[in-house]
Amino acid sequence: MELYKNQPLKIYNTLSGEKETFTPIHPGAIGMYVCGPTVYSNVHLGNVRTFMSFDVIYRYLLHLDYKVRYVRNITDAGHLTDDGDVSNDRFVKQSRLEKLEPMEIVQKYTVDFHKVLDTFNFLTPTIEPTATGHIVEQIELTQKLIELGFAYESNGSVYFDVFAYNAKGLNYGALSNRNIDELFANTRDLDGQTEKKNPQDFALWKNASPAHIMRWNSPWGEGFPGWHLECTAMSTKYLGETFDIHGGGMDLKFPHHECEVAQGTACNGHSPVNFWMHTNMLTMNGLRMSKSTGNYILPMELISGENSFFEKSFEPNIVRFCFLQAHYRSVLDISNDAMVASEKGYNRLIEAYKLIPSLQPNATSSLDITSWKQSCYDAMNDDFNTPILIAQLFEGARFINLVNDGAAALTSEDIKLLSDTLSDFIFTVLGLNNTSSAGTNGTEKLKGVVEMLIEMRNEARANKNFALSDEIRDKLQELGIIIKDGKEGTTFSF
Questions:
Q1: What is the pTM of this model?
Q2: DSSP 3-state assignment of 148?
Q3: Going along 192-347, which residue ranges are E strands?
């Protein structure tokens, strides 16, 4: 096993634009920070896709026997739009909309976030710090940037001076490949931004207006931290001035992560992160997911089937399996056909896995299980390529069926190697839940019971006993079994 785990791991580094061989700063230990949710609304499927990608990365690093300190923050204060307008603070706007205190909003949607991630079988991070729990660290960091000449105070707010940063030979724009000199030349001061020396400067600390609810004391008066500052303060506190991996969605590359690079470099004289990783976006039916266009669905609506986009409900394992069939740096498009195909594929894989105990060992093997196992590691060592890994897992399923049908042979040692490898990658690394009901006799019996109840319901409807009909439907729904009446009859899903 150690031979497989000691192979080189390649990771695509956004900073260099290339795959690089990963070597941790401290042998055997990895520090990884991932930007967590801004908890002013329900977590959406795009968030789930990003956090699922890093859950698999975390799982694989643990599988390789690394000691991983995984920090994923909760942003619960100070999240402004890019123009720095205090009136656009999302927590304040949502608290007014729902007529709740801002911290009630935080609690409500933090609970929702954890519930959704638990549903999809995510591992919990090592540390989950909150922005409001690290106000002192953010004030100290702001003071240090002022002392070093990289920030300035203006009317109770503090801004990072991008021009001063670049003037010292540093490069704001290196992560996102932006030419900041051109931006300086082609921009002008915006209305309402006269506090800033330059339009590109970003807020480290914002002065709180009398109407602003969330506020803390600081050397510059009452205010609240800038969004970008929070992650720098929390990541460096728990992972050090330089750490191994920083991740998030590609939408965070600029300005958020670019600002983190600048803050960390300005404070400590060197880049804060060795590997920057970014996940790509999620679309639905080929279109960007958006509330404004109506092309939008929440994670639990996909699982329950209570939506107009999918023909049935899909259990969390199926959703997870579907998501992991796209590489984390590729656009992932979900659709009804994609989900149905993923369900069939997942069931086929699990049904093959469940045949392993019944395989009869042979004195010799006609299949090369050792090379196949290496191909599974090769896939994950190539920038965590889950689609290639899943293809290899299906190859393992094909081996099982060949042996089961008598068309190939394996020794008892190779059967065990095949079984252990599939278990490691399906359940431990990909994080699919081993308690799935796919392909089990229990599921078939449950389906039989549900079909019997549907027949009773149909008889009740034919006899115009609608009270009994509705009661059967409602009881099934309470148990998580959704039935739908259509032209071709009644269908159901778990």
A1: 0.86
A2: coil
A3: 202-207, 223-225, 243-249, 273-279, 282-284, 287-288, 332-334
